[in-house]
Amino acid sequence: xxxxxxxxxxxxxxxxxxxxxxxxxxxxxxxxxxxxxxxxxxxxxxxxxxxxxxxxxxxxxxxxxxxxxxxxxxxxxxxxxxxxxxxxxxxxxxxxxxxxxxxxxxxxxxxxxxxxxxxxxxxxxxxxxxxxxxxxxxxxxxxxxxxxxxxxxxxxxxxxxxxxxxxxxxxxxxxxxxxxxxxxxxxxxxxxxxxxxxxxxxxxxxxxxxxxxxxxxxxxxxxxxxxxxxxxxxxxxxxxxx
Length: 242
Prior knowledge:
Number of helices: 7
Active site: 73
Keywords: Oxidoreductase
InterPro entries: Met_Sox_Rdtase_MsrA_dom, Met_Sox_Rdtase_MsrA_sf, MsrA_MetSO_reductase
Oligomer: single chain
Pfam families: PMSR
Strand content: 15-25%
Largest sheet: 6 strands, mixed
Radius of gyration: 22 Å
Shape: globular
Distance between the termini: 69 Å
């Protein structure tokens, strides 16, 4: 009887320990959901050799808007955002720091508090601000302070900087929704844009010029999103899709 109870106690403790470990593992996971595989009716999936759908679209005369994203090294963020349907242009630069016209050497010192940032010009009829923010969260760790990938420093912090006060609610609501996927607190900044200075030409389209250059972002992620084109784009998008 005593032996039976002892065995039962050992088994019970094992089950309890396993359950606790499972809870611990689950709660420690920071997990923005991956893009869902496209299903029929979701939209178009581009052919593998089409890297940037926007190069094939017309943006002249469109009512474009701008948003500013900091997500670590701007080389990768720029290349990734360039591939999102509805983005007409992306420029690498330095934002929300102290001083004027900083050089890259100034920025990496960290004392001026600039963030490596990309200026994203987009067509809101093709892609919403909410969608762009979601795309950003797909490739950054918003709970990591002053660090993304192998890059460490205040210039590598994450942030969303807006110029239209009406966008503040959209940005902050998106961050609140994103927090549901994380145990740790999101530290991505949501602030008005104070300043933005274009980076040196060396940094513009860096990964286009240097395909094997360092990048902390998996650029193939951009190819996992189905495209639901506006009417004027349907013919060309269908032609370039699988």
